[in-house]
Amino acid sequence: MIKTLPKTTSWVKLILNNMQESLEERFNKLQGKHPNWNSYLCFANAIANRKYSKVKKWFNKLVDKDDYAPEDKKEILEFLLNLNSGKV
Questions:
Q1: Domain range list for the chain
Q2: What is the pTM assigned to this prediction?
Q3: Kindly report the CA angle at 80 between 21 and 71, in degrees rounded to 5?
Q4: Residues 6 or more apart whose Cβ sits within 8 Å of residue 52
Q5: 3-state helix, strand, coil in the chain (%, to 5)
Q6: What's the pLDDT tens digit per position in 3-22?
Q7: What is the CA radius of gyration of the chain?
Q8: Are 49 and 87 in contact (CB under 8 A)?
Q9: CB neighbours of 60 closer than 8 A, spacing ≥ 6?
Q10: 5 three-class SS
């Protein structure tokens, strides 16, 4: 049986949610594979050249605040956004 497709906006949200889940999955796999890496390093490797959306949100959720100095957060996020988009 073929179900009808949801409205376009719902479809886009579904795709974006799946992308974000895969970011979290990649992060978790890297943490399992490299237990000696800190959460920042796992996150940076998880997003490199992947063009994920909501990088800042996931950074706040996944990266331990002890892995970076609060005063450096703005520069770190700028670097990660460039890394995510393939500019680094």
A1: 8-85
A2: 0.76
A3: 115
A4: 19, 20, 23, 58, 84
A5: 70, 0, 30
A6: 665 566 676 666 666 655 58
A7: 15
A8: no
A9: none
A10: coil
